[in-house]
Structure formats: structure tokens, C-alpha cells
Amino acid sequence: MSKRMGKQTIKFDSPPSIIATASTVGPKEGKGPLASYFDVVLHDPLWGEDSWEKAESKIVRKTIERVIEKAHLTPEDINYIFAGDLLNQLTASTFGIRGLNIPFFGLFGACSTMSESMSLGAMVIDGGFADYVVAEASSHFCGSEKQFRFPLELGTQRPLTASWTVTGSGAVVLAKNGTGPYITHVTTGKIVDLGIKDPNNMGAAMAPAAADTIITHFQDTGRSPEDYDLIITGDLGSIGKELTLELVRRSNYDIEKVFSDCGIEIFDPVTQDTHAGGSGCGCSAVTFAGYLYKEMQNNKWNRILFIPTGALMSPGSTQQGESIPGIAHAVVIDNKWA
Amino acid sequence: MDYIKAFIVGGIICVIGQLLIDKTKLMSGRILVLFVTLGAALHGIGLYEPIVKFAGAGATVPLPGFGYALAKGAIEEVEKVGLRGAFTGGLKATAAGITAAIVFAYLSALIFNPKAKE
Amino acid sequence: MDQMQDMKKEYEQLVEKVSPKSNTVRDCARAFWVGGLICTIGELITNIIKSFGYNQDEASMLTTITLVFLGILLTGLDIYDSIGKYAGAGSIVPITGFANSMVSPAIEFKKEGYVFGVGARMFTIAGPVIVYGVIASVIVGIIHYFI
């Protein structure tokens, strides 16, 4: 029997369980509303390393080591790591994972990487190819400013539509056997580009992709917003969230009652001056690994649709006058499966 | 009195820059290029010198003043040595500023490290 | 194809409607007083230097060097970025901003070494200013020669 539903969705026969999560965040995230949910809060964004890039690699390695430990496993038990970050050629992930001796698939989905890694990890387990998989994603504010925007000491003003890249890594261990929460469905996004060229308004660039994946998910599965306790995107921010709500409404789905965004949850816009909200691969990764997972275990929500969103651009592409395409991958996480 | 003139004119030039930042999608780098080129061009047609005479540092400190200094240097050198002065005059006049920037920036890099933003 | 164009246009309008705009009046007021102040400080420095017997041109040049030094020092001390956040063009447009744009990438890319890091990256933002300024001055000079 085919596991495919509709155009872009897969339903798993034996949904993998998320048996452990781990998160490490930087100082700013540690001062935000979700601070108590994270395993490790750094005081020094360099974590004693020489450069932002090396610091991010250390954060990746320590988080993955911790999540394997929390799952009561050893690195030898893990069949695959699926991981990615924002740096050129995924150097944060590669140098972090280098010493672990675990087969590794490096991924680039920009800020949608966490759901990309969870999707692929779940598919590999349900397909019978693995017993245990680690899915992880990370970002670092300083490293990403250096690569994509401006040096830290430059005197510039950030517009109100800009977002703040999260410093952090979130990791999960997926297992063939477990008692949930389960990944039951995956809706893989396609690239959607409605012509936004402003790299200072990522929310606007990604909202069409988020809306497209949400609508496709409902159409593929026959479900509706009422079937979910929470529908949460990765880093649309306050502006992207409003745009997505409107776009989804135009297809006759009203998700407002259950809709939120990790970028909005992770920072307090008033006291932390983060303008549109948090962003980066780490944003959705740490919010899931810390906040969403723990509250699902507390039964605050029993079924969530988790949709990290990515802006697929490079500094060069915007300079060449290209617009910013977006992509959003959705995973359904359910405390039970029928 | 000099100080007030410098304050007002310098402030106005910065406000023009701020309007460009807020109202257009121009990035700050392009705005700076626009200003320096304008300063040179305005001096070429004789319009910047009066502003300098009036406002002193209010006209020379902002970036159009850098363009003005480059253009002024080129013109003065052309009057002294002819056509090749167009090529030597600009950098000759602004050598102090550019060299200071290079030297101090390099020394800073030796001493300071970037600090993460909170 | 046309449908796509229409969708893009419609979406652009929606984005315009939803995106918050910065407070232009407040931004301009801040740019005005900080930029004005930096220029006034420049004027003060020039007058002080002139009182030591230097003429206008020499004093101007030394003022430039002093302001460049101050901009770089404030950047190294992690202060200029805060000024920039507050004052916007008021800190970008004066020559101190030019200095800040050279030293900030120099410090940032130190990790990539002193040749390809510090040496090359120093000009990422300031380079275009020098290139276009010099080209403009050459054109002005040539035109002046022929007139």
C-alpha cells in the first residue's frame, strides 16, 4: 500500500518516535521567554573558541553528544546524522560532527533545515534503513551576520522588518521503537517565489512557501486546522506570520486560533529589541527541542504541525538582482498514532 | 557662530542620507557612493566651495566633503602640471585621510576583537 | 505567466500594507543632531589646530586624520555600532563612518589572517567609495583641463 498521500505528503506505516532532544543556546536566547526550556545556555557566544564558526561547530558537537546521551545510547548506536547550518559549505556542521564517526548526510535548507533533517530521518527509519537517527540544525548570530550581512562593529540600522539570527543548536534522536511523540506525516515543501527581493524582510519572502505547504498538507491529508493543537512555523516573524495567515485564509483555511511561530516565541520583542523576531536554522531547532517537545510530553499539545521555513538565497544572488525563494517543510508530531 | 553653521549644514546633509535610507531601498554603501560622487560633481561645477566657505566642517566632514576634496585636488593639480594632474591630484589631496584610515584600521585589527551584539 | 505576474504584484501590495515602517521623523531628528554634532566637533578641532599656527588646508587635513582616528577608536571599543544604531545616517555620512566601515571588517575578518582577512576585507565597504570618488575626481579634472 502506498505511503504517499496527495501531492507532497507521506504517511508512515510505523511512525518513528522522538525519544530524546537536546538544545544549546547563546546568551540572548537565554534571556528570552523560553530560557528555562533549554539544556545549556552559554554566557560566551564564542564558548572559549577562536572564531564564531568554530564556536558553532563546538555547539553542534556538544548538542549531538548530549542528545545521544539523553537517549541512553552511544555514538555507535546511531545509524545516521542528518544535519545542517547556514554557513558556506556547512562548515559548522562538518567540523562539529567530524570526530563522531557516524555516517553523515549534510543538508542545506536554510532555516527550514530542522524539518528537512527530521523528515529525512523519519523516512529512513520508517523505510527500514535505520534504527536510530540524529536530526539536528544550528545557527550562530555572529557567524551569519559576518557571512550574509555586515561586520558586527559596523554602525548600521536594522529595519523593523529584520529578524535576529538565533545562536543555538537543537537535536533529536529518532527511534524505530518507542512510545512517542511520533512523527506520523511529512509534507515536503516545494520552492515558492513571489518576487520579494528585500533581504531585510525574510518573513515576507518565506510566507508564500509556508502558506503553500500548509494548504497542500491539508489538501493531501484531508485534515483541517481543527485537527491540530498547534501549527507552528520556523521563523516567519511577526510580519511573515500575518502574511501567511492571510494567504492561507484565501484558500479557505483559518488557522489563526492555533497558529504561532518559533521566531515570535523565542525572543521578547519589547525587551530584546529583535524587531520581527528570531530566525536561523537554530530558531526552530532549539524551540522544538526545548519548548515544543517538553510541552508535548506535558500534554499541553497532543498533535502539532511543525513547519520550519527557509529563505533560499546567498549574498551573491541578491546582489545579482534575484528575488528570494522560500521553502517550508512540515512534519506532524503526534503523541499517539492510530 | 561657526559652530552653529557647521552643526546645521552637517546635520542637513545627514538628514538627506537618512531620508534615502528610510524611504528608498538603497543600501548604505550605495548612498555613500552617491554622496561622494555628488560632492565631486558639485565642486566640478563650483557649487560646493560656497557651502564649504559658509559651513566649514559642516561641509567637509560629511562624505560629500570627501568627494569635494578629491575633486579640488584634481583641479588644483591640473592647474599646476596639466592633464596628468587629473590622475594624480585626487589621491594626493586626500592621502592623509586614506592613509590614516588604513594604518589605524590595521592597528585596531591587531588590538581589538569583534564583540557579539546583545 | 501573466497570472504569476499578477500574483507577485498583489503579494507585493499585501507586504507593503503589513510591513511596519520606521519612524522617519524621529530617525531624521536623530541623524540631524548626531551628524551635526560630529561636524561641530570637527570645526572645533580645526580651530584648535589653527590656533597652533597651521593654515586652513593643513588644519583641515589634520582634522580629517583626527576624526578618522576617533571613528576607529570608538569602533574598536565597541561603541560606534551603538551610535550607528541610534543615529543612522548621522553616523554613516560623516568621515567617522567611513573610518568605521574600514575598521569593522578588518577586525571581523582577523580570523582569516592578516593578508586575506584584515588586508583584503578592509575595503569591502569603503572600496566603492574610494573607487567612485577617485573616478569622479579624474573626470572633473579632465573636464577642467579642457575648459
Would you kindly provide a written description of the structure presented here, covering whatever features stand out?
The complex is a heterotrimer of chains A (338), B (118) and C (147). Chain A has ten helices and 17 strands. Chain A has 338 residues and is an alpha/beta fold. Chain A folds into two domains: 4-175, 3-Layer(aba) Sandwich (Peroxisomal Thiolase, Chain A, domain 1), CATH 3.40.47.40; 182-334, Peroxisomal Thiolase, Chain A, domain 1 (3-Layer(aba) Sandwich). In chain A, the strands form four sheets. Chain A has a seven-stranded mixed β-sheet, sandwiched between helices. Chain A has a six-stranded mixed β-sheet with strand order 4-3-9-7-5-6, sandwiched between helices. In chain A, strands 8-13 form a two-stranded parallel sheet. In chain A, helix 1 packs across helix 2 and helix 5 (202-221) runs parallel beside helix 6. The longest helix of chain A is centred in the middle third of the chain and has 20 residues, at 202-221. Chain A is globular and about 60 Å long. Chain B has 118 residues and is mainly α. Chain B is built from six helices and no strands. Chain B has helices spanning 2-23, 28-44, 48-55, 57-60, 63-81, 85-111. By secondary structure, chain C is mostly helical. Chain C has one domain (25-146). Chain B: InterPro entries: Spore_V_AE, SpoVA. Chain B: This is Stage V sporulation protein AE. Chain B: The chain crosses the membrane at residues 6-22, 29-48, 93-112.
